[in-house]
Design a protein that fits this description.
The complex is a heterodimer. Chain A contains 21 helices and nine strands. By secondary structure, chain A is α/β, with parallel strands linked by helices. Chain A folds into two domains: 341 residues, Up-down Bundle (ABC transporter transmembrane region fold), CATH 1.20.1560.10; 211 residues, 3-Layer(aba) Sandwich (Rossmann fold), CATH 3.40.50. In chain A, the strands form two sheets. Chain A has a five-stranded parallel beta sheet with strand order 6-7-8-3-9, sandwiched between helices. Chain A has a four-stranded antiparallel beta sheet with strand order 2-1-4-5. Classes of the chains: A alpha/beta, B alpha/beta. At the A-B interface, helix 3, helix 4, helix 5, helix 7 and helix 8 of A face helix 1, helix 2, helix 3, helix 5 and helix 6 of B.
């Protein structure tokens, strides 16, 4: 435990708090290290005993004297392969356990700020890059600490072992290892990390331009711009090529330095031990052994420079995760100390009262009043400024405005995805400023502009809103939102929707999202541009259907509809224009 | 190998021959030289293999972009451009380890292994026999293990891809989870899913580690057998130490390339898949032949009627033509709107006019007529498609796409006509990121206007140009068309929006690829 926390602390110092979380449990980690160390020691032992065996054998002693080295050779040979197998199994098991905890911690620390923390920072691929970065962190134990520690153990034990036979030879080996550590691990890593830092953006630009070119082939063809665009691609390719070539020179250098120092160690030990053999202080077979051991030791040491390079990759992934989830280590500690419930629910009773299978309860809704409110990303220049509106049960308000006028900002503000900058929000006649975000969201539901449907079945997506809903209820709901086709022609509730709803059309996704919101039973539903991603000619029809579907009689939900399309006036009670 | 030989001679000299270190110095010097040579060779082979891999990738990528240009937008349209982009970027990276690790290793194995075996054979035929007998055992066991585990592996991998997608799915859906108050429960779910992921991954890894284990065990045991054989024969005096030690040192080297090939096998499999994708594209381009080149934007006419007669387009994979017998005249100075439900073939008419697809029929500009000549009308028309397809750089750079120099006056005129208030110096990210859908659409419109005005072309083709616009912006955009039409341009717009249709001088209705009605304003 002590060792692990020290390693974790060291990782944190080198690469930020994320790396502390990315260290596996000490037990599994050290079991892996032990097996790795044993396997590497067996490799060194194998070469040592076999060279001793042969050298001794040439003196033609009785076979009896050679029994021990012969057994040793066999044992080391078997041990090396066997321990290597155990090492890989146990270290991967430990790394995957860590990965599970890390994912949970990343998710848990993203939750409070979501979705605002995931959007608007960088480009659209933030989320998928985050996921790839989390996966990259399994290399911290596997490809960074593990090889470094194993090679440190093996190198020091080998130096000690050689010292038993010949102290000068041990010193030579030690010196060569130190020089190799500096020359092969530190130096090229410094060179490479500088060029590698240039490679990543060059590669990114090259990828971006290629992707852009392939997406824009039609426009480039129509505007006679294929040639000039290809010239730009070639230029980006040249930049990438010259940068990555520089990295390669550094990488190759470290491999060459290791070969060089292996030779130096062998010749060096030879030079210092040779005279003692001549003087009769050292037996020939032992000399053969210590002269050849460096070859096996350096084979183990070889992994260290690669570990240093792997660390620079791990560190940049960690930095990106930290940007999105800055308090990850606090969350991870809370998760480690207790179970997930305690992190979010004040009391165990509250946790029990948040059932997994029951329909969510919604408080009574009587009124929602916004009084000159401001919402926005930027506190000093909120997108929504000084807006007032009032909504009673079952009422429908249409909010229109040009793109960029803040419709989505208002939608997010209403469900507390963005903080209230100014003004007051009153729910049921009382100031809602001290309501929890969760209790506001029990009253106000949101159908997003690009609703997320989870890969899996329609049933699973609907159960998200109401785990207690029966098939009959769900089928009736699908009919109500106009998904009759899906029920009739596809597999009904068992229809697979695909990743991000890839197997449904844009309109079907919107209808499914509506069915989900209705099933959730929210007294107020906010629609954010439900027709934005739908074929233009289907928009009016979809808009009519959405509003008709929410019209479920006397306790129909109140609706706030954000749209840039006109909506037939008879379908709404009030119309607000955002400027 | 030379290093091993000289070191061996040195050791033997010192300890059997009773020589001093000075006497074996030539051997040591030779060993040192061979070390230097080997270091240089390792470095050179690393560097050159990587450079070759990078260069090959560059060449392949350039070939893919060339091939896509040859195949044209019509070909790209019918497949996922996302997967195309993946093939040309990340897909090609899979070739890295194929070219820099697997291929050199394979060649090395083919050359080095026999050389090592022959040297051992020359030195000591008994050890060589042991190596020759044990060596084929390794590939044999690998094939055997592969044979028994292939099915398990495949099933496990497909389950894995489903599971690894889960984490991405829940993070993308985090806002949805919060709306339904499910985000906290999801933490437990993630924990369960990752546990399952771990169990499954470990099952897969156990199998692949097992084959690694067999490889390693085979190699190690072979070395051990050789060592013991040498040792016992040394005792019997059948072998001298020089040979014994040397053979012992090079036996592991003989096995090393074979082990490395096994270790790099996975990289090779990925590389082959990527290469197949690339060659599929290159072959398709080769089959199509040289692209029909468009004339640059140039025509002596700045105002002319566009006549389309009997236009038909058939895709090989469809059972009926996408459009057939479409005939209309778009008069200079008027706005023609092509309307109809989605999938009716409206955009296909433009694809034919732009030469993106093969077509039958006649296209006439003013008095000159061409039949089926592919990209002719591209030289006299300017076009804006359904997707904005903007690029990185400033708004102004996007506008004068295809022209080397910008005319700021035309830039501001084009932006004004497109009702866009973008600053021409606004910088866009690749793919035009940084603008909202409506803003991007207006910049794309302005780009079409720029070309139209800069080259004084007679025809403007617009495909759903106002789909992402609010009603106020749409109104201003429609006013811009009228202004262009009044200046004598022939404006053809695909749209079904009421506001657009009411501005039309002529509406051509297309349904199921054929004309379904016509209305003149």
């Amino acid at each position: 435990m002590q060792m692990r926390s020290r390693l974790a602390a060291l990782s944190e110092r080198l690469g930020g708090p994320v790396l502390r979380v990315a260290m596996p449990e000490p037990r599994g980690f050290w079991i892996g290290i032990s097996f790795g160390g044993l396997s590497a020691l067996c490799a060194v032992g194998l070469l040592a005993t076999s060279s001793y065996l042969i050298a001794a054998a040439s003196l033609m002693p009785p076979i009896l004297f050679l029994q021990i080295p012969i057994v040793g050779v066999r044992a080391f040979a078997l041990g090396r392969a066997f321990f290597r197998y155990l090492e890989r199994i146990s270290s991967h098991e430990a790394a995957f356990r860590m990965l599970g905890k890390l994912r949970t911690a990343v998710f848990a620390s993203l939750v409070p700020g979501a979705p605002a923390n995931l959007i608007g920072r960088a480009r659209g691929d933030t989320v998928s890059r985050l996921v790839a970065d989390v996966d990259e962190l399994q290399n911290l134990p596997l490809r960074v600490w593990h090889p470094i520690i194993v090679s440190a153990i093996v190198c020091s034990l080998s130096v000690l072992g050689v010292a038993f036979v010949s102290v000068p030879a041990a010193l030579v080996l030690l010196a060569c290892l130190v020089v190799a550590a500096i020359g092969a691990a530190v130096l090229p890593a410094r060179l490479a990390s500088r060029s590698a830092a240039a490679v990543a953006p060059a590669r990114g630009r090259q990828f971006d331009l290629t992707t852009q070119y392939l997406h824009n082939v039609d426009v480039l063809t129509a505007f006679d711009a294929l040639e000039s665009e290809r010239a730009r691609l070639e230029q980006a390719d040249k930049v990438l090529f010259s940068n990555s070539t520089r990295v390669v020179w550094g990488d190759g250098l470290s491999a060459a330095i290791i070969v060089l120092l292996t030779g130096a160690a062998v010749i060096g030990t030879f030079l210092v031990s040779g005279p003692s053999v001549f003087a009769g202080q050292l037996s020939g077979p032992l000399m053969a052994m210590i002269v050849l051991v460096p070859m096996a030791v350096f084979e183990v040491f070889e992994t260290t420079p690669k570990a240093v390079l792997a660390f620079s990759k791990v560190r940049s992934s960690a930095a990106r995760i930290e940007e999105l989830a800055p308090d990850i280590n606090v969350v991870a500690d809370q998760l480690a100390e207790s179970d997930a419930d305690a992190l979010f629910y004040e009391t165990p009773a509250e946790a029990d009262a948040a059932p997994d299978t029951a329909r969510p309860e919604h408080p009574q809704f009587t009124s929602l009043r916004l009084d000159s409110v401001s919402f926005g990303w930027n506190p000093s220049a909120p997108t929504i400024h000084d807006l007032s509106l009032e909504l009673g049960p079952g009422k429908r308000i249409l909010v229109t405005g040009a793109s960029g006028s803040g419709k989505s900002t208002l939608a997010w503000g209403l469900v507390r995805f963005l903080p209230l900058r100014d003004g007051t929000v009153e729910i049921n006649g009382r100031n809602a400023s001290n309501w929890s975000d969760e209790s506001v969201r029990q009253l106000i539901g949101l159908c997003e502009q690009q609703p997320h449907v989870f890969a899996g079945t329609i049933r699973a997506n609907l159960h998200l809103a109401d785990p207690s809903a029966s098939d009959t209820v769900m089928t009736a709901m699908l009919e109500r939102v106009g998904l009759n086709d899906l029920i009739a022609h596809r597999a009904g509730l068992d229809t697979i929707v695909g990743e991000n709803g890839a197997l449904l059309s844009g309109g079907q996704v919107q209808r499914l999202a509506l069915a989900r919101a209705l099933l959730g039973g929210f007294p107020v539903i906010v629609f954010d541009e439900p027709t934005a991603n739908v074929d233009p000619e289907l928009r009016v029809e979809l808009m009519r259907d959405l509003l008709a579907a929410t019209d479920g009689g006397p306790d129909r939900p109140a609706v706030i509809m954000m749209s840039h399309d006109e909506v037939p006036a008879e379908l709404v009670d009030e119309h607000i224009r955002l400027e | 190998m030379a290093f091993s030989w000289f070191v061996t001679r040195g050791i033997v000299g010192v300890f059997l021959g009773g020589q001093t270190v000075a006497e074996v110095a030539p051997f040591l010097a030779a060993a040192a030289i061979s070390v230097l040579v080997r270091a240089a060779a390792v470095w050179a082979s690393d560097v050159f293999a990587s450079i070759a891999a990078t260069r090959t990738k560059s060449q392949l990528r350039a070939k893919v972009t060339d091939a896509v240009a040859t195949l044209g937008p019509g070909w790209v349209e019918r497949r996922s451009s996302a997967s195309l982009a993946t093939t040309a970027t990340h897909g090609l990276d899979a070739l890295d380890s194929y070219f820099s690790a697997y291929l050199p290793q394979l060649v090395l194995t083919a050359i080095a292994t026999p050389v090592f075996v022959i040297i051992i054979l020359v030195q000591d035929w008994v050890s060589a026999l042991a190596v020759i007998i044990t060596m084929p055992v390794i590939p044999f066991f690998m094939v055997l293990i592969g044979f028994f585990t292939q099915d398990v592996q495949k099933r496990q991998w497909s389950a894995l891809t489903v599971l690894s997608g889960h984490f991405l799915d829940v993070i993308q859906g985090l806002s949805t989870l919060k709306i339904f108050g499910r985000e906290k429960r999801q933490i437990t779910v993630i924990r369960d899913v990752t546990t399952e992921y771990r169990t499954r991954t470990m099952k897969v890894l156990r199998v692949s580690f097992m084959s690694g284990f067999v490889l390693e065990l085979g190699a190690t045991l072979a070395v051990a057998i050789v060592a013991v054989l040498i040792g016992t024969r040394l005792i019997a005096g059948e072998l001298d130490l020089t040979t014994g030690l040397f053979v012992l040192l090079i036996t592991p080297e003989a096995f090393l390339p074979l082990r490395q090939v096994g270790a790099n096998y996975h990289a090779a499999a990925e590389g082959v898949v990527a290469a197949n994708d690339v060659f599929e594209i290159l072959d398709a381009a080769a089959a199509q032949g040289a692209p029909a080149r468009a004339a640059n934007a140039s025509t002596t006419l700045s105002h002319a009627d566009l006549r389309v007669a009997g236009l038909g387009v058939s895709y090989p994979e469809a059972d009926r033509p996408a459009v057939a017998g479409v005939t209309f005249v778009a008069k200079a100075g008027t706005i023609t709107v092509i309307a109809g439900p989605s999938g009716a073939g409206k955009s296909t008419i433009f694809s034919a006019l732009l030469g993106f697809v093969d077509y039958d029929g006649q296209i006439t500009l003013g008095t000159s007529t061409r039949e089926g000549a592919l990209p002719w009308s591209r030289s006299f028309s300017s076009w804006a498609g359904q997707r904005p397809s903007l690029r990185d750089g400033t708004v102004a750079e996007n506008l004068h796409l295809g022209d080397d120099h910008e005319d700021p006056e035309i830039t501001s005129a084009a932006l004004r006509l497109a009702a866009s208030d973008q600053d021409p110096s606004t910088l866009l990210e690749p793919g035009g990121e940084g603008l909202s859908g409506g803003q991007a659409q207006r910049v794309a419109l302005a780009r079409a206007y720029y070309r139209l005005l800069a080259h004084d072309l007679p025809v403007l083709l617009l495909d759903e140009p106002s789909s992402a616009l609010d009603s106020v912006s749409e109104e201003s955009v429609v006013r811009g068309w009228r202004e262009l039409a009044d200046a004598g341009k022939t404006v053809v717009v695909i749209s079904h929006r009421d506001r657009v249709m009411s501005a039309a001088d002529q509406v051509v209705r297309i349904e199921n690829g054929v004309e379904a009605g016509r209305a003149d304003a």
